[in-house]
Amino acid sequence: MNLLQQLEAEQMASVRAKPHPEFRPGDTLKVSVKVVDVTYDEKAKANKTRERLQNFEGVCIARQGAGLNESFTVRKISYGEGVERVFPVYSPLVDSVTVVRKGKVRRAKLDYRRGRTGKSARITERTDNATEASDTAA
After folding, report:
1. DSSP state, 122?
2. Any residues with CB less than 8 A from the CB of 109 and at least 6 apart, and which?
């Protein structure tokens, strides 16, 4: 392991106290993001900061990068409009990631879902038995 890899490993350990669960494209995720609200108080003549957690629930359509630069893209439909958001895996603003539903897909990048709605945009659910059977067959 060279010096850059050692420094990167130390940074990853310091940013993330508990690791995220295993997830891959096609899985439905609930990402809790820290949102910092800054307001100016006229009476105190100072800025007030308030932190809160906001959930972003959608389908993971891509994972890219490696090490500290790794990120994942989550897509959801909000009020009939598609919304995508890219989250760095090792970001202090990402509080937690929970897997709501595991999806069975055959591609690593699910960009084709952007143009689809209804039945053609559905992703079937992956069961643990199906993944064990494919792992033993390989």
Report:
1. -
2. 25, 61, 62
92/76 Cα distance (integer angstroms): 22
Distance CA(72)–CA(63), nearest Å, equals: 4
> Torsion angle of alpha carbons 100, 98, 120, 70, nearest 10°?
-160
Cα separation, 53 vs 114, whole angstroms: 27
What is the token pair recorded at 19? 């690791």
The verdict on pTM exceeding 0.85 is: no
| Domain architecture of the chain: domains with CATH | 20-111 (2.30.30.790)
pLDDT digits (tens, 9 = 90+) for 72-126: 999 999 998 899 999 999 888 999 999 999 999 999 999 988 888 888 888 999 9
How many whole angstroms separate alpha carbon 47 and alpha carbon 10? 34
Contact 57, 76 (CB under 8 A): yes
